[in-house]
Amino acid sequence: MAPYIFMERNGIHIIDLEKTLIRMDEAAAALRQIAKSGRKVLFVATKKQAKDIVAEKVGAVNMPYVTERWPGGMLTNFPTIRKAVKKMGSIDKMAIDGTFDNLSKREKLQITRQRAKLEKNLGSISDMTRQPSALFVVDVCKERIAVHEAKRLGIPVFAMVDTNSDPSDIDFVIPANDDAAKSISLVIEIMCQAIAEGLNERKAEKDKDNLQAEREELPEGAHKGKFTALDYKEEEKPEMKAEETEEKPEEIVAVEGEESTQEEK
User: What is the rounded CA–CA span in Å between residue 49 and residue 182?
Assistant: First the structure.
């Protein structure tokens, strides 16, 4: 962490905030692109100061997060984790279809406890159907297992790195105090804002593509449900022919009348 330390005073290392700002902007830009592509970012913060902050801010942008104990093998053994999540869904289905009511009191208690445990540990990642495209860690030392699994699978790691941590395994280092709640809240808020911007850009592009597809399906000359004069020409032609056919018998009668008068003369 020497490149990110500004100075040392009374045995305390002070982080260079200018470098923190630069690194934070780089990380935010990368997260924005990941969110814009429709991929997921997994946030990991199991320390007490960061649990509530991450649950509130990350949950607002619909990204998965882990605030309880990191379940070993969440990334390297992801199919097993998915089975546990499906188990939680099957328990919910039992409660809906009435199967849960047919169980004994003891079985109900066991299943309820199992459901509560699964919800506590895996409830925040229930929507994550595949491995995340990036990992954001608040404390590198505390979450070393998660970082090791991500590096083993080649998943990029974003992390808040304090002066007592090793940033060598981190792809996007954010030098910051990972013990202070205000510091954690500030960094997480900026990252979540970047993700929200990426999601909004993705939504805007989808709306634009859908609008373009709708315009291509409309007939020529039709715009926003309105038709030009050219669209009515084909409908006017048959009416004109009908008028002409109606006038022809009168002309024939007039000609026949003239011929008859001439013969009488």
Answer: 9
